[in-house]
Amino acid sequence: MILVTVLSSASWATASEAPKRGTASLIVENDLFYNNDRDYTSGVALMWVSTRGSTPDWAVRFAHWLPWFPKVGDVRHGYVVGQSMYTPSDITLADPPLDDRPYAGFLYGTIGLGVETGRQLDQLALTLGVVGPASNAEETQKFVHKLIDSPEPQGWDTQLENELGLLLTYQRSWRQWRTRTLAGLEVDLTPHVGGALGNVYTYANTGLMLRYGRRLSLDYGPPRIQPSVPGSGMFVESKQFSWYLFAGLEGRAVAHNIFLDGNTIQDSRSVDKEPLVGDLQWGIVLAGRKARLGYTHVVRTREFESQDGSSEFGAVSLSLSF
């Protein structure tokens, strides 16, 4: 019901204006790429973003009403449904140590709005979801582990309690520097700033991405599950094959993280979080006329004081334009 409410609140009310074209993306993030099973262990999201010129009038009017959004540029709106899960370092224990990350899941729906000028991308998103047993993270992880013949997690009875999650995020990215290099390839640098406010996350973030390849105007990097270095759910179709390598970093000043701080009102497990968290990532994007495939390797610094070092996970995204 939560996801239905989020996804239908604006679009179905203006069904006659609903866009007919868009870009659909599947994003899968998992630490099993690197033979781990702890901390941020899995995230899956389905994303849809309208294409240029197909955004309904209500979204265009709202984008132009926002005082910090550019008044010119392509307005796009989109939706995301997703599930993320977090586990301690040893999933074979029914009662994990109290100083290890709590079990937690998050099932959510997001409605987003963006304006892209060619040199700047602004993205605003509102997320509504549920943390706790209602997220079905326990069932998802046990089902996947059974499929891949991996040990069954034993400690989900200690997970965070049910809580509605509300989150507002904003990101601004700039194509600050771009030049051609040897063999007609391109290099660009895209810094970004942003933040999140809500009972799921509250943080301020900044960082940048460096890309090298062919047709960098294709997008602003592959889409990711927040919090992360921002990318874009849309990409520009081209008859020519395109590719690029990329590397990025982001720093976040974290005031609140429900997956570490525990439930807002109810008693639950919690750990002492680190106030500053950094992400380092690198990867590759391949794109044809109607499809884009991206892979990202992510190294994330310690998120809580008793965490045993940094964490690593991989992110795969497949986007199809139709």
How do the SSEs run, as a string of H and E?
A: HEEHEEEHEEEEEHEEE
Give the rounded overall mean pLDDT.
90
Instruction: Name the beta content range.
Output: over 45%
- CATH 4th-level superfamily: Outer membrane protein
Largest sheet: 12 strands, antiparallel, barrel
Just give the CATH class. Answer: Mainly Beta
Number of DSSP helices?
Answer: 4
The total strand number stands at: 13
The tally of domains stands at: 1
Look at the helices and sheets and give the structural class: mainly beta
Account of the 3D structure:
It is a single chain. The longest helix has 11 residues, at 137-147. This protein starts with a helix and ends with a strand. 10% of the residues lie in helices and 47% in strands. The chain has helices at 2-8, 57-65, 137-147, 258-261, and strands at 22-30, 39-50, 74-87, 104-116, 120-131, 163-174, 177-180, 186-198, 201-214, 242-257, 276-287, 291-300, 311-321. It has one domain (2-321): Lipocalin. The chain is mainly β and 322 residues long.
